[in-house]
Amino acid sequence: MSPLKDLRGSAAIVGVGTFGCGEAPGFTDMELLARSAHAAVADAGLRMGDIDGLCTASVGSTMWAMPVIEYLGLRPRFIDNTMLGGSSFIAHLLPAMLALQAGQCQAVLVCYGSTQRSGSTGRAEIAQARRWLDPQPYETPYEPPMPVAAYALAAARHMHQYGTTGRDLAEVAVAARAWARLNPEAFMRDPLSIDEVLAARRVADPLGVRDCCLVTDGGGAYVLVRAERARDLPRKPVYVLGNATAVWNRQISSMHDLTVTAASQSGPEAFAMAGLAPRDIDVLALYDAFTINTLLFLEDLGFCPKGEGGRFVQGGAIAPGGRLAVNTNGGGLSCVHPGMYGIFALIEAVRQLRGDAGQRQLARACTALAHGNGGTLSSQSTAILGTAEAL
Amino acid sequence: MNTHSEPGIQARHQHELDQGRFLIQHCSACERHAYFPREVCPHCGHRPLALAAPSGLGRVYSLTTVHRKPEAGGDFNVSLIDLDEGVRLMSRVQGPPDRPLRIGQRVEARVLVSDGRGLLLFDAVEEGAAP
User: Fold this and answer.
1) Residue B82's closest chain A neighbor by CA?
2) What is the pLDDT of residues B7-27, one digit of tens each?
3) Which residue from B minimizes the CA distance to A144?
C-alpha cells in the first residue's frame, strides 16, 4: 500500500468559520482572518491555545504567516505559508496531514481574510505593485487585464475547439445564482437569466461581467486534527480522503493546452488516494473564478469527457434539482470571492457533509470534492472529503 | 568578488529586441526551441541555449478583445501566437483589415521600437506567405 493511501481519512476537519463575507467596511484583512479563525476554533470545541499548526497565505504580504502568528498569539510547531493563489488553502491540507501524522503538531488552523472590496488599497494599486514583486515581462507589455484576460483566452480556445457557446458559459453563472438564492450568506441573490448574462457588459471576449467572480470582503478558516481526536470533539468530523496539488505554469502564455489544466493531474491523484471515482461524489465545490473554470474542472476532474463541459451543464444540470450539485453556496460567481476563494469552496463542502447547509442542504451528502484554482489557471488543488460513512 | 561580464538572457533578449531583432532560443542538446528566454532549457535542463532567429511566422492560438472605455484608449487585442518553431507567446495582432481576427489566422512578427524600447507585435498575413 502506498504511503499516501495510508493517510486516507487520517485527519478530519472539525471546525469551520467565516466572517465578514460580502462587505465589511472598516475592517482589515487581519481582523476578518482573526474573527474567522476564532469562529472555526470555537466550532471545533477547542481554544486558541490548542492550535499548534498554522497555514495561511495572503495576496499582498509574502511573509503573512508571521503577522498572523503574532496577531493570534500562537506558538506553532508546524507552519505552512505556501502561496499558490486561490488554491492555497486546499493545497495546505496534505502537508498538514503529514505533520499531524508525524506528531509534529496536534491541531492545525488554516485561515484567510481579505478586504478586497472595502479595503483602502485598491486592486489597481495591487496590480501596479505586482509588476515589481511578481514580474511577467513577456506578458505585461501587452497590458492584459489579469486575471480576466487569461480566462478569456482559455474560454475562446475552448469554444473554438469544442463548440462551447456563450450560453453554455452563462448556464454556469445562472446555476451558481440559483444556488446563491438558497444561501443567506451569498452576496448576490437577485434572479439571473441566461439572457441577462449574455447581455451584461463585456469585459474580455467571450467573457462579460456576469461570467466573472465577485469582488467581496471575507474571511474563512478551518481546523484539522487527527481522526482519532476528531471523534472526541463536538462536531461531526469531515474526513480528508484525498488531496493533491499540481502546477504546470504561471503565465497563461506558458500553458501547453488552454483547454487542459493541471486539475487533470491533481484530480486523478486525489481520487487515487481516496480510492474513489467521480461517480462516487455527492457534491462538488469548484473554484469558479470565471464561468469557463467550472467547465474545465468538470472535464479535467473526470465528471464528463474533455470538451463536453458545455453540453454537460445545459438545461440547469448543475443548478438546484439538476443531475450534479455544483457550488451549492453560489460559488465565487454569486456567494463570496475576496481575492482568493479556495477556503470557501472547502468550507461549503464541509457544511454540506455536516448537514449544516440549511435550505440548500442536499438529501445525500457523504462525499464531496473541493477544488481550488490559483493564478491564471496556474495552480490546481483537489480535495476529496467524506463523512464517517465514506471511510 | 565575482562579476559576470555578460548580462542575463532576459536583458540580452531585450537588447536585441531594442535593436529591432526578435530572437527565440534553440537547445543544441534536445534540438527544441524555447520561449520565453531562459538560462536553462525547459525541455531537457541543458544550458546554455543559443539565441536563434525564428521564421517570424505563426498562427493565432487564442485571442480576446479587451473592452476599454474610448477615453482610456478603446478596445484592444491580446493574442496567444504559436510560432512555426513550436513555441507559444503573448502578443498583439494587427488586422486583417477586411474581417474579424480569428483563431488560426496566419501572422508574421514585427518589432516596434519606440523610445529605444522594442516590442514584439504581429500582423495578419495571407495563408502561404513567405518569410
Assistant:
1) A253
2) 999 999 999 999 999 999 999
3) B78
